[in-house]
Amino acid sequence: MTQTVQVPKSNEQNYLSLAPLDIRSTRPDRYAGGGFDMTLDQLAAEDVALIRQVYGAVKRMYDLWLYMSGTPNYRLLREELALFAQKSFLREAQRIGTHTRTRSTQVAKVVHDIRGGGLTSLTGYAQLIPRMQGIDDEQFIRQAVFLARDHAKMMRNAIPELDPIFREADEGMKLHHIDEFVAKWRGFVFQLSDRAVAVTADSAFEGFITNRCLETSAVDRILYNYINNAARFAASGEVQLTILPVNGGTVTRWVVENELYQDQYAWLKETLDLNLEPLFAGGYTRGGSGIGLSNCSDFVAASFGVEPDTAVSEKYLGAAVNGLTYYAWFHWPAYVPESADEPVCDCGH
Fold it and tell me: In angstroms, rounded to a whole number, what is the distance separating the alpha carbons of residues 68 and 54?
């Protein structure tokens, strides 16, 4: 397992000052991870076909990994990954939702996460294949497999009927340790159109964060939105993810930070006067849809039993700029097992 880290005091104080330390849940029960989804009949048949095509591709890659049962054929997996770099695949994936003339806000949010999420990272990763010379090839392929796994889970979270049998399995009790999230992101490299962006990940929290795959996919729908955004605007070519315990360790604080380009800082200053709360209500964007962060508000609010506008105003999630450093954060309740025999998910292996 990943070792708990000691966050430098100066950085820790920055992270702790972003929001109150007494964040707590008002829910009588734990949020299971669902509720922000749609049905396929809300989309045109052409969009449904594209969704099934993408889901089949990401699930097939992880299924192949599992089928190899600990002795993976990396050459074969690399060939499978090459699909995600094909221009025809990328073009079709980005057309999801465009055939549906009238879309509700909820459908637009689901389409956003299906077209983004792990797929954004996976397609960028796949485009690195021609440059790979066998160095760290196994680690490279392993990270790609887990991107595919995550995106398949997020798609099932967003459209339960897409794969009802596996969706039901996602709902089963299986604990997920914080190490699973840290290991996935530590050392990850985004390959964007013109540059590479590296992710550093550390956690001062040690323990379980979710108690089922469905809840994990909800956290991933938040985290991928945050990190994808940070990578787009990372002036230094680096994104930092830090997880800290607050409120006596009952809650975790996830902070994603990146250095801004001067023009991005100027846009935030001119558009929002650096009051970034409106970003989480949707409608404000620079080159995007403005939907992703409002999705995050929905999930965080549900996990704590508050309304999305309350979650933003009371800093359950938010963003701030200090100098040219952009901080985006959200909270998620830690999970304390109720018995020693609760099963731990092995989907990170």
Answer: 22
Q: Are strands 173-177 and 208-212 parallel, antiparallel or unpaired?
A: antiparallel
CA distance 81 to 64: 11
In the block, which residue shows the tokens 């309304």?
307
Quick one: pLDDT band at residue 124, thresholds 50, 70, 90? confident
How far apart are the C-alpha atoms of 230 and 237, rounded to whole Å?
A: 10
**Residue 47 and residue 348: Cα distance in Å, rounded?**
31
| Degrees, nearest 5: CA angle 188-192-193 | 160
**Is the entire prediction scored with pTM above 0.90?**
yes
Q: What is residue 347's DSSP assignment?
A: T
Query: Which residues make Cβ contacts (< 8 Å) with residue 316, sequence separation at least 6?
Result: 19, 23, 300, 301, 304, 306, 310, 330, 331
Based on its alpha-carbon atoms, the radius of gyration of the chain, rounded to whole angstroms, reads 19
Which residues are registered as beta bridge partners of 253?
A: 244, 331
Q: What is the pLDDT of residues 254-313, one digit of tens each?
A: 999 999 999 999 989 998 999 999 999 875 555 554 688 999 999 999 999 999 999 999
37-90 pLDDT, tens digit per residue, is 999 999 999 999 999 999 999 999 999 999 997 788 988 998 899 999 999 999
**Continuous H helices in 171-276:** 178-185, 213-232, 262-272
Neighbours of 118 (CB within 10 A): 25
Cα distance between residue 239 and residue 260, in whole Å: 11
- Strand pairing category for 238-246 and 196-203: parallel
